[in-house]
Amino acid sequence: MSYVAENFPKTATIVEVGPRDGLQNEKQLISAEDKIILIDMLADAGVTSIESGSFVSPKWVPQMATSTDVFNGINKKNGVKYMALTPNIKGFEAAINANVDEVAIFGAASEAFSQKNINCSIEESLQRFIPLIEAAKKANIKVRGYVSCVVGCPYDGYIEPEKVAEVAEKLYQMGCYEISLGDTIGVGTPASVQKMLNAVKTRIPVEKLAVHFHDTYGQALANIYTALQNGISVIDSSIAGLGGCPYAKGASGNVATEDVLYLLNGLNITTNIDMDKLLKAGWFISEKLGKASNSKVSTALKA
Ligand code: HMG
Ligand code: MG
Known about the structure:
single chain; alpha/beta; TIM Barrel; two-stranded antiparallel ribbon; binds 3-hydroxy-3-methylglutaryl-coenzyme A; binds magnesium ion
């Protein structure tokens, strides 16, 4: 008898952030050609949302300097969205020139993190996003909004759920079609995540929420389970559990896509992603980085 979790979404969307969030924290530069191979393998595995790069200052994040070449080289597959992070109008224009399908802006619920990550206050960042969102509307490009540090900040410590809800609501009202809630340093547990979601859900419908967990303390899958129980069905993850944020010291990679898929398969939540092909994408990039995969499922199935 197969187990169907009650009240859980029947289908889920994985937003693969490995080529961006995963690689941005890797010191070893990966060539545009290898990033393109990785992205094509992910699309071939059935992943339909792939954050493939970012248009940020190359001085701040050198690994992302090849994003234009990456977007120009992808063998675009029908039905797949190729997305990019854009912090300002300059980044948005570069993204448009590289034919990205969708952009994401990134704000934070913590003042100190906002300063370290994008060199401005939360309020200044929101002001900066206004012309970007206007330009995106004109170009018919959807904008996703991230809120970082939704349970804790590497500089400010504990973050009030109400602060997260406030920033998330502002991004939503400004026109972001979806808000991805980021536990940037992976400190959340199901209890603190539930508390944060309770605050956010009073302001934004759950269908408009996504979760983005880093796995620093090994809590990401439990936190995703909590999000699913709340009806959230969009989950960000990173192939082979790559990554971390360069401006969040000690933050380890995102939860591994392979591990999230195993969880969703076990709950009978449909994604249409092929595990075997996904594993191969993870092994490819791990080999390029000369590192073991951070995915438990990958390690188990490779043995
Ligand atoms: P700034 O120094 O305040 O910007 O940086 P500025 O406007 O004064 O410009 C300084 C220089 O950067 C100039 O060049 C600009 O042209 C250039 P220069 O005259 O010195 O040669 N510049 C750019 N170049 C390329 N693309 C651009 C761009 N904008 C300006 N878009 C800025 C402000 C936002 C640019 C900088 O702080 C930055 O790039 N930050 C990005 C940091 C980043 O990428 N962090 C990681 C992503 S966030 C994350 O990982 C969290 C997330 O995963 C969710 C979670 O886990 O919680 C999303
Ligand atoms: Mg992240």
